[in-house]
């Protein structure tokens, strides 16, 4: 079953649908309880153990999913800062070369930094992301080839031993960062979470006592749960939500200042 539509659907729409479904499911559970209790000889006993077990399972899955999305968010932040450090190290080591070579390196590094900033600025448009990645790869390939060619000269041995590892780390982190971008909470886990939310709402409605609907309790339960789901989705989609990676990306933007001094 293809559930990719969950990740591609805006978080606000998903949460709104979940909220409405929870409200309807809770009401249906209450109405089913009243219906069975209205049939002579078919009055059903309360089942607090089943309700408690289901709500406990719901709380466990919510906590697990929140932890998963939060850890991925923190990982993305860490990788962006690490990439900025790797690029900064490579730029500084280019200063070890004579000015004629150094200027060529710095010109390419400046373009490379701009391409990596563009990789973030394009948002969640996959086509633009791939274009930015291709641009970055083209520039980094040019930097690598220059460093490798200079390494063929024995007189540059000491410089090569400094430059090659820095450029290699700068290139490798691109793959790591893109993999982290795609490492979101599996859609099947979200689907099961939504299903459990709706089922849990039904059981809560079924377990209510009395013959009148307590809309305040229903609204608070559904609203708080929906907000928690929104946080999970927002943490898992840092390119298109309220919670972003802008503060970490600022470290990448700050690299531009390295090229203001010749």
Structure commentary:
The longest helix is centred in the N-terminal third of the chain and has 47 residues, at about 50-95. The chain has one domain. About 20% of the residues are buried. It starts with a helix and ends in a 9-residue tail after the last helix. It has helices at about 5-10, 10-40, 50-95, 100-120, 125-150, 155-180, 185-205, 215-235, 245-255. The protein has about 260 residues and is an all-alpha fold.
Summary of the model, kept short:
The chain is mainly α.
Radius of gyration: 27 Å
Number of strands: 0
Beta content comes to under 5%
Integer count of domains: 1
Number of helices: 9
Which tags fit this structure?
mainly alpha; 9 helices; rod-shaped; 262 residues
């Amino acid at each position: 079953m293809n559930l990719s539509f969950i990740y591609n659907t805006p978080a606000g729409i998903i949460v709104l649908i979940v909220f409405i479904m929870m409200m309807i499911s809770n009401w249906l559970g209450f109405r089913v309880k009243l219906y069975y209790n209205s049939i002579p000889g078919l009055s059903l006993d309360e089942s607090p153990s089943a309700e408690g077990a289901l709500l406990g399972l719901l709380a466990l899955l919510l906590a697990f999913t929140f932890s998963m999305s939060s850890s991925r968010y923190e990982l993305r932040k860490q990788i962006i800062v690490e990439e900025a450090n790797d690029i900064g190290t490579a730029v500084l080591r280019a200063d070890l070369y004579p000015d004629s070579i150094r200027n060529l390196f710095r010109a390419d590094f400046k373009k490379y930094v701009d391409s990596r900033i563009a990789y973030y600025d394009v948002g969640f448009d996959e086509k633009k992301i791939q274009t930015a990645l291709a641009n970055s790869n083209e520039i980094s390939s040019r930097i690598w080839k220059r460093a490798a060619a200079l390494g063929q000269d024995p007189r540059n041995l000491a410089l090569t031993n400094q430059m090659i590892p820095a450029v290699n780390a700068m290139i490798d982190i691109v793959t790591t960062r893109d993999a982290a971008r795609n490492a979101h909470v599996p859609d099947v886990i979200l689907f099961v979470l939504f299903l459990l939310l709706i089922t849990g709402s039904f059981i809560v409605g079924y377990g209510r006592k009395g013959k009148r609907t307590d809309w305040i309790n229903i609204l608070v339960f559904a609203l708080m749960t929906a907000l928690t789901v929104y946080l999970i989705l927002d943490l898992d989609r840092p390119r298109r939500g309220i919670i972003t990676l802008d503060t970490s990306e600022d470290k990448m933007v700050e690299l531009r200042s390295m090229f203001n001094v010749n």
